[in-house]
Design goal:
The chain has 13 helices and 2 strands. It has helices at residues 11-21, 29-34, 42-58, 65-69, 76-88, 112-133, 140-151, 157-168, 174-187, 192-204, 210-227, 233-236, 240-248, and strands spanning 93-99, 104-110. Strand 1 (93-99) and strand 2 form a beta hairpin. It is elongated, with a radius of gyration of 29 Å.
């Protein structure tokens, strides 16, 4: 008769199984690396981590200061102050959302502002890394800075990718992209789609330099002048701002 050995639990294996079954909290590496750039303190970061843990593990989207204080070395009033700080820094906000189970709107914490700020950091890092690796094309830094200056803000990741695509995939010279931006500013249309339409029009006409563009426009208005010779001279000599409307919005 085979004698069975008594089961001896392996403490390390049991611990690992319990640890795995308890689940994990997902945190963006970018947040842990760059929270100080956003003006977030260590205490505020720990608070954010606990709020995300409750959201992911317990589906609790509006934990009370009392509950949060149970997980931190901070009392209720300190937690309330930390939450107020995060809201003031536009990292956190309180929004109302419909709850189907309760049949009424409820308040929840939203981290939309935090993710928008992280996206801005990501976009800047992407451009910087590209330049250092030699992947970025000539003039990207200048073009990127010009767009941020005119838009008065950091560009979104999608906007940054659009600029890279113009230079890398479409092979538009940096001077042409800057000229298209200049035209958009003069028209008061700070819109990537409008700038893209200008560049596409130039590409369709095989215009690759600012000099070629200016020459094309000069000839264009000479033809317009001949067609409308019976009209008033003032209409022929309209402003540069109005010229762009006829060429690029027609």
């Amino acid at each position: 008769m085979v004698k069975l050995k008594a089961y001896k639990p392996n403490f390390t294996a049991e611990f690992a199984m319990d640890l795995y079954s308890a689940g994990s909290v997902v945190l963006p590496e970018l947040l842990l690396r760059c929270y100080s750039q956003l003006g977030i303190t260590e205490m505020e970061l720990v608070l954010i981590i606990h709020m995300w843990r409750l959201r992911q593990m317990e589906q609790e989207y509006y934990p009370s200061p009392e509950k949060l204080s149970a997980f931190m070395a901070a009392d209720k009033s300190t937690i309330e102050e930390l939450i107020a700080n995060l809201i003031e820094k536009k990292v956190l906000e309180v929004v109302r959302q419909d709850d189907e189970s309760l049949k009424r709107p409820v308040e929840i914490y939203s981290f939309r502002g935090l993710f928008e700020k992280l996206a801005e950091i990501w976009a800047c890092e992407r451009a910087t890394q590209s330049r250092r690796a030699g992947e970025t094309l000539e003039g990207l830094g200048e073009v990127y800075q010009a767009f941020e200056k005119e838009f008065g803000r950091l560009l979104s990741p999608m906007e940054g990718e659009k600029i890279v695509a113009w230079l890398e995939e479409d092979k538009f010279p940096p001077e042409l992209v800057l000229e298209a931006l200049k035209r958009a500013v003069l028209r008061g249309i700070l819109n990537f789609n409008y700038i893209d339409s200008i560049l596409r029009q130039w590409a369709k006409k095989n215009l690759r330099t600012v000099r070629e563009i200016n020459e094309y426009e000069r000839k264009f208005y000479e033809r317009q002048n001949l067609k409308g010779s019976g009209q008033r001279t003032a209409k022929v000599n309209r402003s540069r701002k109005e010229k762009f409307k006829d060429i690029y919005l027609s």
